[in-house]
Amino acid sequence: MLKGKNAIVTGGSRGIGKAIAIRLAMEGANVAVFATKETKETMDFVKELHTYGIKAVFVSCNVALEEEVKTAVAKVIEAFGSIDILVNNAGITNDKLLMQMKSEGFERVLNVNLLGTFLMIKECIRPFMKQRYGRIINISSVVGMMGNAGQANYAASKAGVIGLTKSIAKEYASRGVTCNAVAPGYISTQMTEALPEATTQAILEQIPIKRLGTPEDVANVVAFLAQEETSYLTGEVIKIDGGMYI
Ligand code: NDP
């Protein structure tokens, strides 16, 4: 259970992040949802989170911008008093073959997926150290382990997240702060909806558990890593891919 714990979920407004926010709220954690767009749908979702008997806030924050991250984390501390759980889930793709990929497109993906994860951890690490407690969970991808044609930028960012996770795990283990990553395979969300049917079929062929993953499949593992009881588990990368990459 996560009763009384305070969590930030970046990119918590839809897809995997939304499922994580719901799962943490179900376990009793207060949840701050970070995203760049303050839509009616997102505000309704944050209201819905209150029905779990927890505090929930929406914080507008582009994780790739240091000043926005600083202000946003301060707002959460003001609202909740402290932070115990940080889920770095915000992520984007900009798929192109290398020949067509411009450095601007490469950088944009790296800035959100990798620099954004770094900035969020950097801003939360002081409060974590002070309270000698923290759970950091980063959302990587199996693509960061196996590579993928058309995703050089995305794969590089997600491989970077794994290196970052392991380094943070080593640096802050003695302070009661654990840092782990999950590496989802193909999960049904807006990000994967855009794939042509033939591509989805080809992907299914490679998945021993013959289905795409759901956001809840990821949220269940994140909720496990967020528990106080996982204090001896750090620097780990858990694949959630139906056996696609074994
Ligand atoms: P979605 O595109 O459905 O959702 C992305 C979320 O991130 C939204 O809430 C979006 O809100 C937010 N976001 C995007 N850019 C920023 C930013 N700069 N700052 C803050 N928030 C931002 O993605 P998924 O749910 O599919 O993916 C979630 C994570 O899981 C990503 O890191 C992705 O790489 C990873 N993943 C997904 C897989 C999949 O198959 N779907 C597989 C493996 C990993 P807004 O637009 O308002 O900013």
- According to CATH, the homologous superfamily is NAD(P)-binding Rossmann-like Domain
Question: Which whole number gives the mean pLDDT?
Answer: 97
Give the CATH architecture.
3-Layer(aba) Sandwich
Total number of helices: 9
Spell the H/E element sequence.
EHEHEHEHEHHEHHHE
**What is the share of helical residues?**
40-55%
Structure ligands:
NADPH dihydro-nicotinamide-adenine-dinucleotide phosphate
Largest sheet: 7 strands, parallel
Category from helices, strands and their pairing: alpha/beta
The quaternary state of the protein chains shown equals single chain
Strand composition percent: 15-25%
Supply the CATH class. Alpha Beta
Strand order of the largest sheet: 3-2-1-4-5-6-7
* CATH fold category name: Rossmann fold
Radius of gyration: 17 Å
Low-confidence stretches: none
Q: What is the tally of beta strands?
A: 7
N- to C-terminal distance:
31 Å
* Total individual domains: 1
Sum up the overall morphology in one term: globular
